[in-house]
Amino acid sequence: MDSKDEEFGEFDPDILDEGPTAPPPGLFDDVSGYEETPKNGDDIDKLYPPPPDRVPIPEHDRNAAVPHVRVPTVSEEIAREALLQFVDKKWTYRSKPARDLVFKDLKPFTVYRYRLETFAESRASAWEFEPYTDQFLDGPQYGISPPPWDVVVEVPPTYTDSKVKVKVPHSSFVRPCHRCHGRGRVRCTHCTGSGKTRCTFCHGSGRHQNNRCTSCHGSGRKRCTFCSGRGHKTCPSCNGKKNLMHFIQLTVTWKNHVFEYVPDRIPDFPVKKFEKVAGDPFFVDESILVYPIVGFPDEEICEASKRGNQEHLSTFSSVNRILQQRQTIELIPLTHAFYDYKGQDYNYFVYGMDNKVYAPKYPSSCSIL
Description:
single chain; 9-stranded antiparallel sheet
Protein backbone atom coordinates (compact mmCIF):
# COMPACT_ATOMS: atom_id res chain seq x y z
CA MET A 1 0.00 0.00 0.00
CA ASP A 2 1.20 3.46 -0.86
CA SER A 3 2.58 5.08 2.33
CA LYS A 4 1.33 8.47 1.21
CA ASP A 5 -2.17 7.09 0.91
CA GLU A 6 -2.09 5.65 4.42
CA GLU A 7 -1.96 9.06 6.05
CA PHE A 8 -5.56 9.64 5.03
CA GLY A 9 -8.50 8.02 6.69
CA GLU A 10 -8.14 9.37 10.23
CA PHE A 11 -11.69 9.91 11.54
CA ASP A 12 -11.99 13.17 13.51
CA PRO A 13 -14.86 12.91 16.04
CA ASP A 14 -14.78 16.66 16.68
CA ILE A 15 -16.04 17.34 13.18
CA LEU A 16 -19.79 16.87 13.18
CA ASP A 17 -22.20 15.94 10.43
CA GLU A 18 -23.46 18.80 8.31
CA GLY A 19 -26.50 20.50 9.82
CA PRO A 20 -29.57 21.89 8.01
CA THR A 21 -29.05 24.56 5.35
CA ALA A 22 -31.68 26.82 6.93
CA PRO A 23 -31.41 28.14 10.50
CA PRO A 24 -33.81 26.61 13.05
CA PRO A 25 -36.87 28.83 13.71
CA GLY A 26 -36.07 29.18 17.41
CA LEU A 27 -32.87 31.03 16.56
CA PHE A 28 -34.65 34.31 15.79
CA ASP A 29 -36.01 36.99 18.05
CA ASP A 30 -39.09 38.83 16.82
CA VAL A 31 -38.39 42.27 15.37
CA SER A 32 -41.20 44.74 15.88
CA GLY A 33 -43.15 45.18 12.65
CA TYR A 34 -41.59 42.05 11.11
CA GLU A 35 -43.07 39.32 13.34
CA GLU A 36 -44.45 37.41 10.33
CA THR A 37 -41.16 37.39 8.43
CA PRO A 38 -40.48 33.77 7.31
CA LYS A 39 -37.92 31.98 9.47
CA ASN A 40 -37.34 29.06 7.13
CA GLY A 41 -35.33 29.47 3.95
CA ASP A 42 -37.93 27.56 1.89
CA ASP A 43 -40.80 29.91 2.74
CA ILE A 44 -42.07 32.70 0.51
CA ASP A 45 -41.12 36.22 1.57
CA LYS A 46 -43.71 38.04 3.68
CA LEU A 47 -45.46 40.64 1.50
CA TYR A 48 -46.56 43.88 3.17
CA PRO A 49 -49.45 45.95 1.82
CA PRO A 50 -48.75 49.68 1.83
CA PRO A 51 -50.16 51.67 4.78
CA PRO A 52 -53.38 53.62 4.10
CA ASP A 53 -51.56 56.94 3.76
CA ARG A 54 -49.54 55.50 0.84
CA VAL A 55 -52.60 54.31 -1.12
CA PRO A 56 -54.01 56.84 -3.64
CA ILE A 57 -57.79 57.32 -3.41
CA PRO A 58 -59.61 57.45 -6.78
CA GLU A 59 -62.17 60.15 -7.47
CA HIS A 60 -65.12 58.28 -8.96
CA ASP A 61 -66.55 61.29 -10.82
CA ARG A 62 -63.36 61.92 -12.84
CA ASN A 63 -62.94 61.12 -16.54
CA ALA A 64 -60.48 61.88 -19.33
CA ALA A 65 -61.31 63.55 -22.65
CA VAL A 66 -59.53 62.80 -25.96
CA PRO A 67 -58.79 65.27 -28.78
CA HIS A 68 -59.72 64.73 -32.43
CA VAL A 69 -57.20 62.78 -34.52
CA ARG A 70 -56.38 62.80 -38.21
CA VAL A 71 -56.05 59.41 -39.97
CA PRO A 72 -52.83 59.15 -42.03
CA THR A 73 -52.85 57.75 -45.57
CA VAL A 74 -50.42 55.49 -47.42
CA SER A 75 -49.57 56.31 -51.03
CA GLU A 76 -48.85 53.77 -53.79
CA GLU A 77 -45.16 54.71 -53.62
CA ILE A 78 -45.00 54.00 -49.88
CA ALA A 79 -46.98 50.76 -50.25
CA ARG A 80 -44.67 49.52 -53.03
CA GLU A 81 -41.50 50.42 -51.12
CA ALA A 82 -42.80 48.66 -48.01
CA LEU A 83 -43.47 45.49 -50.02
CA LEU A 84 -40.01 45.63 -51.63
CA GLN A 85 -38.38 45.82 -48.21
CA PHE A 86 -40.54 42.93 -47.01
CA VAL A 87 -39.60 40.77 -50.02
CA ASP A 88 -35.92 41.63 -49.60
CA LYS A 89 -35.96 39.86 -46.21
CA LYS A 90 -37.57 36.72 -47.68
CA TRP A 91 -34.80 34.91 -49.52
CA THR A 92 -37.26 32.61 -51.35
CA TYR A 93 -39.19 35.60 -52.79
CA ARG A 94 -38.37 37.46 -56.01
CA SER A 95 -38.65 41.25 -56.14
CA LYS A 96 -39.97 41.43 -59.73
CA PRO A 97 -43.68 41.12 -58.76
CA ALA A 98 -43.33 43.92 -56.20
CA ARG A 99 -41.72 46.19 -58.83
CA ASP A 100 -44.17 45.38 -61.64
CA LEU A 101 -47.50 45.02 -59.82
CA VAL A 102 -50.41 47.31 -60.71
CA PHE A 103 -52.37 48.71 -57.77
CA LYS A 104 -56.15 48.45 -57.96
CA ASP A 105 -57.08 49.92 -54.58
CA LEU A 106 -55.58 51.12 -51.30
CA LYS A 107 -58.09 50.83 -48.48
CA PRO A 108 -57.09 52.56 -45.19
CA PHE A 109 -58.45 51.48 -41.80
CA THR A 110 -58.62 53.43 -38.58
CA VAL A 111 -57.06 51.26 -35.86
CA TYR A 112 -56.53 52.45 -32.28
CA ARG A 113 -54.46 50.83 -29.58
CA TYR A 114 -55.22 51.61 -25.94
CA ARG A 115 -52.51 51.06 -23.34
CA LEU A 116 -52.63 51.53 -19.57
CA GLU A 117 -49.40 51.37 -17.57
CA THR A 118 -49.40 51.12 -13.79
CA PHE A 119 -46.02 51.60 -12.14
CA ALA A 120 -46.27 49.94 -8.73
CA GLU A 121 -43.99 49.08 -5.83
CA SER A 122 -44.18 46.07 -3.49
CA ARG A 123 -42.19 45.22 -0.36
CA ALA A 124 -41.50 41.81 1.18
CA SER A 125 -39.12 40.52 3.84
CA ALA A 126 -37.30 37.32 4.81
CA TRP A 127 -34.57 36.37 7.26
CA GLU A 128 -31.17 35.99 5.57
CA PHE A 129 -27.62 35.41 6.75
CA GLU A 130 -24.03 35.86 5.62
CA PRO A 131 -20.62 34.85 7.07
CA TYR A 132 -19.63 37.13 9.92
CA THR A 133 -16.18 38.61 9.23
CA ASP A 134 -16.20 41.39 11.82
CA GLN A 135 -18.22 43.66 9.52
CA PHE A 136 -20.36 46.38 11.09
CA LEU A 137 -23.22 44.86 13.05
CA ASP A 138 -26.31 47.07 12.85
CA GLY A 139 -28.29 45.51 15.69
CA PRO A 140 -31.14 46.57 17.99
CA GLN A 141 -28.64 48.43 20.19
CA TYR A 142 -28.81 51.21 17.59
CA GLY A 143 -32.58 51.60 17.72
CA ILE A 144 -35.89 50.10 16.64
CA SER A 145 -36.16 48.79 13.07
CA PRO A 146 -38.30 51.06 10.86
CA PRO A 147 -41.52 49.58 9.40
CA PRO A 148 -41.17 48.04 5.91
CA TRP A 149 -42.56 51.07 4.07
CA ASP A 150 -40.36 53.50 6.04
CA VAL A 151 -37.08 51.93 4.90
CA VAL A 152 -35.54 54.46 2.52
CA VAL A 153 -34.60 53.18 -0.97
CA GLU A 154 -33.87 54.96 -4.25
CA VAL A 155 -36.74 54.70 -6.70
CA PRO A 156 -35.76 53.76 -10.30
CA PRO A 157 -36.97 55.69 -13.37
CA THR A 158 -40.75 55.54 -13.80
CA TYR A 159 -42.19 52.58 -15.75
CA THR A 160 -38.93 50.64 -15.38
CA ASP A 161 -38.92 47.15 -13.84
CA SER A 162 -36.36 46.91 -11.06
CA LYS A 163 -35.60 45.13 -7.78
CA VAL A 164 -33.37 45.95 -4.83
CA LYS A 165 -32.56 44.01 -1.66
CA VAL A 166 -31.58 45.92 1.50
CA LYS A 167 -30.85 44.99 5.10
CA VAL A 168 -33.52 46.30 7.45
CA PRO A 169 -31.75 48.74 9.81
CA HIS A 170 -31.10 47.50 13.38
CA SER A 171 -32.24 43.91 12.65
CA SER A 172 -28.81 42.18 12.62
CA PHE A 173 -27.34 39.77 15.18
CA VAL A 174 -24.54 37.16 15.26
CA ARG A 175 -24.85 33.46 16.15
CA PRO A 176 -22.60 30.38 15.72
CA CYS A 177 -23.19 28.78 12.34
CA HIS A 178 -26.08 26.28 12.49
CA ARG A 179 -24.65 24.19 9.66
CA CYS A 180 -21.22 23.43 11.14
CA HIS A 181 -22.16 24.04 14.80
CA GLY A 182 -19.63 26.87 14.95
CA ARG A 183 -16.63 24.75 13.92
CA GLY A 184 -16.12 26.14 10.42
CA ARG A 185 -15.90 22.62 8.96
CA VAL A 186 -18.38 19.81 8.28
CA ARG A 187 -17.83 16.09 7.84
CA CYS A 188 -17.58 14.97 4.22
CA THR A 189 -20.76 13.09 3.33
CA HIS A 190 -19.09 11.14 0.50
CA CYS A 191 -16.52 9.39 2.70
CA THR A 192 -18.36 9.87 6.04
CA GLY A 193 -15.25 11.53 7.43
CA SER A 194 -12.77 8.74 6.70
CA GLY A 195 -11.04 10.51 3.82
CA LYS A 196 -11.37 7.45 1.59
CA THR A 197 -13.98 5.94 -0.70
CA ARG A 198 -14.31 2.55 -2.37
CA CYS A 199 -12.14 2.14 -5.45
CA THR A 200 -14.38 2.27 -8.50
CA PHE A 201 -11.85 0.42 -10.67
CA CYS A 202 -11.87 -2.81 -8.64
CA HIS A 203 -15.16 -2.14 -6.80
CA GLY A 204 -13.37 -2.33 -3.46
CA SER A 205 -11.94 -5.82 -3.92
CA GLY A 206 -8.31 -4.69 -4.24
CA ARG A 207 -7.85 -6.93 -7.27
CA HIS A 208 -8.51 -6.55 -10.98
CA GLN A 209 -8.41 -9.52 -13.34
CA ASN A 210 -6.72 -11.65 -10.68
CA ASN A 211 -4.00 -9.07 -10.21
CA ARG A 212 -3.42 -6.44 -7.59
CA CYS A 213 -5.44 -3.32 -8.49
CA THR A 214 -3.05 -0.67 -9.78
CA SER A 215 -5.49 2.13 -9.09
CA CYS A 216 -5.78 1.62 -5.32
CA HIS A 217 -2.56 -0.46 -4.86
CA GLY A 218 -4.65 -3.37 -3.60
CA SER A 219 -6.28 -1.54 -0.69
CA GLY A 220 -9.74 -1.38 -2.26
CA ARG A 221 -10.04 2.25 -1.19
CA LYS A 222 -8.90 5.56 -2.67
CA ARG A 223 -8.54 9.10 -1.52
CA CYS A 224 -11.89 10.87 -1.49
CA THR A 225 -11.93 13.39 -4.35
CA PHE A 226 -14.65 15.52 -2.74
CA CYS A 227 -12.61 16.41 0.35
CA SER A 228 -9.11 15.62 -1.01
CA GLY A 229 -8.76 12.94 1.66
CA ARG A 230 -9.21 15.29 4.60
CA GLY A 231 -12.49 13.78 5.75
CA HIS A 232 -14.04 17.22 6.05
CA LYS A 233 -14.75 20.32 3.99
CA THR A 234 -15.16 24.02 4.64
CA CYS A 235 -18.66 24.86 5.78
CA PRO A 236 -20.57 26.23 2.75
CA SER A 237 -22.75 28.50 4.91
CA CYS A 238 -20.13 30.39 6.92
CA ASN A 239 -17.16 29.79 4.58
CA GLY A 240 -15.17 28.57 7.55
CA LYS A 241 -15.76 31.75 9.61
CA LYS A 242 -17.72 29.79 12.29
CA ASN A 243 -20.25 32.60 12.88
CA LEU A 244 -23.14 34.00 10.84
CA MET A 245 -24.70 37.43 10.80
CA HIS A 246 -28.48 37.12 10.56
CA PHE A 247 -30.64 40.01 9.38
CA ILE A 248 -34.02 40.78 7.87
CA GLN A 249 -33.72 41.42 4.16
CA LEU A 250 -36.29 43.69 2.55
CA THR A 251 -36.94 43.06 -1.13
CA VAL A 252 -38.38 46.10 -2.90
CA THR A 253 -39.79 45.40 -6.36
CA TRP A 254 -40.91 47.93 -8.94
CA LYS A 255 -42.92 46.63 -11.87
CA ASN A 256 -44.65 48.29 -14.77
CA HIS A 257 -47.95 46.48 -15.29
CA VAL A 258 -49.41 46.91 -18.79
CA PHE A 259 -52.97 46.54 -20.03
CA GLU A 260 -53.30 46.75 -23.80
CA TYR A 261 -56.23 46.50 -26.16
CA VAL A 262 -56.69 46.70 -29.93
CA PRO A 263 -60.18 46.10 -31.43
CA ASP A 264 -60.17 43.07 -33.72
CA ARG A 265 -62.34 44.13 -36.65
CA ILE A 266 -60.42 43.08 -39.76
CA PRO A 267 -60.88 39.32 -40.29
CA ASP A 268 -57.99 38.89 -42.74
CA PHE A 269 -55.44 40.66 -40.54
CA PRO A 270 -54.10 38.97 -37.33
CA VAL A 271 -54.54 41.44 -34.47
CA LYS A 272 -51.39 40.07 -32.77
CA LYS A 273 -49.34 41.73 -35.53
CA PHE A 274 -50.02 45.07 -33.83
CA GLU A 275 -48.15 44.05 -30.67
CA LYS A 276 -44.66 44.71 -32.06
CA VAL A 277 -45.20 47.83 -34.15
CA ALA A 278 -45.10 51.50 -33.26
CA GLY A 279 -48.15 53.71 -33.40
CA ASP A 280 -48.75 57.44 -33.18
CA PRO A 281 -49.54 58.27 -29.51
CA PHE A 282 -51.84 61.24 -30.13
CA PHE A 283 -53.29 61.02 -26.61
CA VAL A 284 -51.19 60.68 -23.42
CA ASP A 285 -52.65 61.04 -19.94
CA GLU A 286 -50.38 60.64 -16.91
CA SER A 287 -50.95 61.02 -13.17
CA ILE A 288 -50.75 59.07 -9.91
CA LEU A 289 -54.18 57.74 -10.93
CA VAL A 290 -55.72 58.16 -14.38
CA TYR A 291 -59.43 57.95 -15.12
CA PRO A 292 -61.58 56.23 -17.76
CA ILE A 293 -61.77 57.86 -21.18
CA VAL A 294 -65.16 59.22 -22.24
CA GLY A 295 -66.47 60.77 -25.42
CA PHE A 296 -63.97 59.11 -27.77
CA PRO A 297 -65.59 58.12 -31.10
CA ASP A 298 -64.48 54.48 -30.80
CA GLU A 299 -66.66 53.16 -27.99
CA GLU A 300 -64.58 49.96 -27.67
CA ILE A 301 -61.58 52.09 -26.64
CA CYS A 302 -63.71 53.82 -23.98
CA GLU A 303 -64.83 50.44 -22.65
CA ALA A 304 -61.24 49.13 -22.67
CA SER A 305 -60.12 52.19 -20.71
CA LYS A 306 -62.82 51.64 -18.11
CA ARG A 307 -62.06 47.92 -17.84
CA GLY A 308 -58.30 48.45 -17.63
CA ASN A 309 -58.64 51.10 -14.92
CA GLN A 310 -60.88 48.86 -12.82
CA GLU A 311 -58.62 45.80 -13.24
CA HIS A 312 -55.41 47.62 -12.31
CA LEU A 313 -56.92 49.44 -9.34
CA SER A 314 -58.46 46.29 -7.85
CA THR A 315 -55.44 44.08 -8.61
CA PHE A 316 -52.52 46.26 -7.63
CA SER A 317 -53.73 48.67 -4.94
CA SER A 318 -54.22 45.94 -2.30
CA VAL A 319 -50.61 44.68 -1.96
CA ASN A 320 -48.73 47.26 -4.05
CA ARG A 321 -48.23 50.98 -3.84
CA ILE A 322 -49.26 52.62 -7.11
CA LEU A 323 -46.66 55.30 -7.85
CA GLN A 324 -47.78 56.47 -11.29
CA GLN A 325 -50.17 55.61 -14.10
CA ARG A 326 -50.12 56.47 -17.78
CA GLN A 327 -52.74 55.78 -20.43
CA THR A 328 -52.26 56.34 -24.15
CA ILE A 329 -54.24 55.98 -27.34
CA GLU A 330 -52.16 55.31 -30.43
CA LEU A 331 -53.27 55.46 -34.00
CA ILE A 332 -51.81 52.47 -35.85
CA PRO A 333 -51.82 52.99 -39.62
CA LEU A 334 -53.25 50.01 -41.53
CA THR A 335 -53.79 49.91 -45.27
CA HIS A 336 -55.14 46.99 -47.28
CA ALA A 337 -53.44 47.05 -50.69
CA PHE A 338 -55.13 45.28 -53.64
CA TYR A 339 -53.14 44.75 -56.83
CA ASP A 340 -52.90 42.85 -60.10
CA TYR A 341 -49.89 40.88 -61.31
CA LYS A 342 -49.97 39.03 -64.64
CA GLY A 343 -53.76 38.98 -64.67
CA GLN A 344 -54.21 37.61 -61.15
CA ASP A 345 -55.47 39.46 -58.07
CA TYR A 346 -53.40 39.64 -54.88
CA ASN A 347 -53.42 41.72 -51.71
CA TYR A 348 -51.33 42.55 -48.65
CA PHE A 349 -51.39 44.84 -45.63
CA VAL A 350 -49.11 47.75 -44.71
CA TYR A 351 -49.26 48.53 -40.98
CA GLY A 352 -47.56 50.48 -38.20
CA MET A 353 -45.62 53.75 -38.28
CA ASP A 354 -42.63 51.90 -39.74
CA ASN A 355 -44.70 50.40 -42.60
CA LYS A 356 -44.43 46.71 -41.83
CA VAL A 357 -45.98 44.29 -44.32
CA TYR A 358 -48.21 41.27 -43.84
CA ALA A 359 -48.51 39.33 -47.10
CA PRO A 360 -49.82 35.80 -46.57
CA LYS A 361 -49.78 35.20 -50.34
CA TYR A 362 -47.16 36.52 -52.76
CA PRO A 363 -47.10 35.98 -56.56
CA SER A 364 -43.92 33.91 -56.75
CA SER A 365 -41.35 32.18 -54.62
CA CYS A 366 -38.40 29.97 -55.44
CA SER A 367 -38.73 26.23 -54.88
CA ILE A 368 -35.91 24.62 -52.91
CA LEU A 369 -35.25 21.08 -54.14
